[in-house]
Design brief:
mainly alpha
């Protein structure tokens, strides 16, 4: 059997994100989303079936945390990190996380400390 048929790529990942999550969260570049492709595969999510199941498993929780009110500390942090234009766009449209953040939050929820250690090393923390 040709496993490449079942493997997913950036195009498939993006299509699934658009099908599963709100359009307002489609706010990152494909380059940013592509970074998560490597992370997903590193943590064993390698096929079309895997990615669809993984995203659906965490969908409700991800949408829920995206809609939670942000405390003042995170407002200041996000405004500083994102810049005024993106920050105010997120306020006006009612979202906090773009597709790559959804994926990374789900990876952290699924793999806990193992993913957190990976992410800290990735980010130089």
């Amino acid at each position: 059997m040709n496993t490449k048929i079942k493997d997913f790529d950036l195009t498939y990942l993006y299509e699934q994100m658009k099908l599963i999550f709100p359009e307002k969260n489609d706010c990152a570049s494909l380059v940013e989303l592509e970074e998560t492709l490597y992370e997903l595969k590193l943590f064993g999510i390698k096929t079309k079936k895997d990615i669809k199941a993984f995203l659906m498993k965490h969908k409700e929780w991800l949408i829920e945390i995206d809609q939670e009110p942000m405390d003042e500390y995170h407002h200041r942090l996000y405004r500083k990190d994102l810049g005024d234009e993106v920050y105010f766009d997120s306020i006006n449209k009612g979202y906090w996380f773009c597709y790559p953040a959804f994926i990374r939050n789900a990876l952290e929820k699924e793999f806990g400390d193992e993913y957190e250690k990976f992410a800290n090393a990735r980010d130089g923390i």
